[in-house]
Design goal:
Structural class: alpha+beta
CATH class of the largest domain: Alpha Beta
CATH architecture of the largest domain: 3-Layer(aba) Sandwich
Oligomer: single chain
Largest sheet: 10 strands, mixed
CATH topology of the largest domain: Aminopeptidase
Helix content: 25-40%
Distance between the termini: 24 Å
Number of strands: 16
Length: 398
């Protein structure tokens, strides 16, 4: 455990199951959605044991990143007020948060065009219990968290490129609150499709190709490998266009998609939504594909990631098929909207989609402000003006 203490406040990194359940029961009031508080806490416990959350325990990762691997995965933090009565492990906790730390890639002026590993840290679960609000505890906790990871970089940065290239981001539900702590908002708007029958008829021509495969919980590593090549190509192109900037992305990983799917299946089973078995995407014969998850709380099918093969076929013709399969899944599971981030599918790059979505959908459903605004804290030596976050989409959300 690493901790800092000042003014009777103690910030610490913990692994205690009892404390974890306590913090999740507390913040369930804000994020439980369709679940009970007990079920929400159980879901969070399960997410904490997923492969992406325990990446630090993977032998291959330990061997490849021997000086930094232990900071991968899901990490838990509390802020305690030591002046409160000390009657249990949790009696002094006033705020809590988590970070999901994943492998990433980056190119920067000092890397000479070479892609380097980066530790991409995403803050989530920032919560202060109602009775402790108004005391500035959350602000002090985020400041302590920043210092915690700054100290980590200072300790390991010369030994580990992974730690040296650390980037911290978050998704703010309180507008630009985190700017005071060095987090620069990078808003990506959302688009929604609700007129399913008309889209299937006018955009997809009621001609959805059935040849291909539905994606299950596992078994599509070959498709994720395509993302990897695509991400690296994009980084190099951005670096060529922006030679003086730090450019980063979360690394593609099947375990990231499985983390979304764990949430998906847990809520489905607890609420009775969706039936017995769900597909999580569809791949066409040329390996173009869409990966989705079901947001039962908001009745939304989210297109988490798409990949369009460079096979000479017009990209929009392939996109019609991918969107068509997403719409069919939304209809089947009785979800009211299909959602995608503009960086995932920039609608201005697809003239037919752009025209039809603007004709059919209410303007409030297009370029919609994201309720969780992306924000990034630039790595050491950089400002928000010379950092580019590539693949800033639902894919790397926490």
């Amino acid at each position: 455990m690493i901790m800092t203490a000042t003014d009777n406040l103690e910030f610490s990194n913990y692994e205690d199951d009892e404390i974890m359940k306590f913090t999740h029961m507390n913040n369930s009031a804000a994020w439980k959605g369709l679940l009970s508080s007990e079920d929400y806490a159980e879901r969070e416990r399960r997410l904490g044991s997923t492969d992406i959350a325990t990446k630090d325990q993977t032998p291959e990762v330990q061997e490849q990143y021997s000086e930094g691997y232990k900071w991968l995965g899901l990490k838990y933090f509390t802020l305690k007020n030591k002046s409160l009565p000390d009657t249990s492990k949790t009696s002094q906790i006033v705020s809590s948060c988590e970070t999901l730390n994943r492998l990433g890639y980056c190119i920067h002026p000092g890397s000479n065009g070479k892609i380097e590993p980066a530790l991409i840290i995403c803050i989530g679960g920032v919560f202060t219990e109602q009775k402790f609000r108004g005391e500035g505890y959350a602000a002090k906790m985020i400041s302590a968290l920043n210092k915690f990871y700054d100290d980590l970089r200072a300790e390991y940065g010369n030994k580990s490129p992974l730690i040296k290239n650390m980037v911290i981001n978050l998704y703010s539900e309180v507008d630009n609150y985190y700017e005071r702590f060095g987090y620069h908002s990078v808003h990506v708007p959302l688009h929604h499709i609700t007129k399913y029958d008309q889209f299937l008829k006018r955009y997809c021509n009621n001609d959805i190709i059935e040849e291909g495969r539905y994606l299950q919980f596992n078994g599509y590593e070959d498709l994720v490998a395509l993302h990897d090549a695509q991400f690296e190509k994009s980084l190099r192109q951005l670096a060529k266009e922006n030679p003086n900037k730090f450019i980063f992305t979360v690394k593609p990983d099947l375990d990231i998609f499985k983390w979304f799917q764990e949430r998906d299946v847990f809520i489905m089973k607890k609420t009775g939504n969706g039936g017995d078995e769900l597909p999580f995407g569809f791949a066409l014969p040329d390996q173009s594909h869409v990966i989705w998850h079901h947001n039962w709380n908001d009745s939304v099918l989210v297109m988490t990631k798409i990949y369009i093969s460079e096979n000479g076929k017009p990209k929009e013709e392939t996109l019609k098929q991918l969107i068509g399969h997403a719409i069919l899944e939304a209809q089947k599971t009785k979800l009211s909207k299909v959602q995608f981030w503009d960086e995932e599918i920039p609608i201005e790059d697809y003239p037919q989609l752009n025209s039809l979505i603007n004709e059919l959908e209410d303007k409030s459903l297009i370029y919609k402000t994201n309720g969780s605004v992306s924000a990034v804290r630039p790595p050491a030596g950089y400002t928000s003006d010379n950092v580019i976050w590539d693949n800033n989409t639902k894919f790397c959300w926490f």
